[in-house]
Amino acid sequence: SLSVMGCWSWATWEPYGRWTADYVTTYSEYTQDGDLSHDMAVITYKPQSEGPFEGLFIGEVVGYMGFKPTTSTGSNLQKATVTGYPYDKADGEMWTSGGPCEGGFTSTWSQYLTRHKCDSVGANSGSALLDLKTQQVYGIHVASYFINRDVSDAATSNTGVVLNEKHYYNLQDWSGIGFQGEIRIQHSNKECMEMNTDTFNVYIHDCHGGENQKWYWYSSKEEIRNQVNGRCLDYNYSNGNLYVHNCHGGSNQKWTWDGNRFKSLHDGKCIDMNLNWSKNLILYSCHDGLNQKFIVPDKFFW
Predict the structure, then answer these.
(1) Burial code of 43-82, b = ≥16 C-beta within 10 A, e = fewer?
(2) Which of 37, 183, 209, 243 could be cross-linked to 193 through a Cys-Cys bond (beta carbons 3.0 to 4.6 Å apart)?
């Protein structure tokens, strides 16, 4: 079976234990045809089965990064680095190419590939094209590859596969994630569902585009997760409050969508904005009021 360690060093073997793969999804264009422009895969891991992190997914222990779409010359890609495990460094050490790469990221013969001059060596293949400041991944460094595939002795350059529209939506689909974005309440249409990054309470606030107002639908588990920490929208059924908590698969973290409202699978109640000054989100008997109706991004649900 395929497994991954949360961390490794000469001093400490597997300080976070191991996670075992649940399933792997990739492109036949690569596995069967060797097409480098489709050299990527999604591995979904099971929660840890024993130890101090039993029941937790790897991201809930060692942290998450986001991923966003781009093009081979996209402005957001220009801030990326190659961050991974080069062979010329000590085993288990992660290194980055530093700041934005000299010459930036430029086009190739394929819309799926980008050419770059980031410092990289053998074993860097599979490294993230990562913006260190925003912690967003825009592609994967894959190889040194022919600049012109039709010329047998053409020069090679460092090459990455970018998350263009096709790859981006496929990665979301394969990992069970819907579109990441704001959830607006119809009561005002200018206010969004927000997580307090200190208390993890969830309420309504003026929309500002921050990561704590970005959510994604984890379709295979019927969960809504926050982009800041990947944790789940949770219904405290003892007091009716809505907050964010470590994902555990309980019915109070599972939701259905009727086109306007989010309903809890625990008891069928709807997410409701308390109309007092706090605008706190609670669970309440479903009704037709705009304080229970929301607007989600296109492709939020798959």
Answers:
(1) eebebbeeeebeebbbbbbeebebbebbbbebeebbbbbb
(2) 183
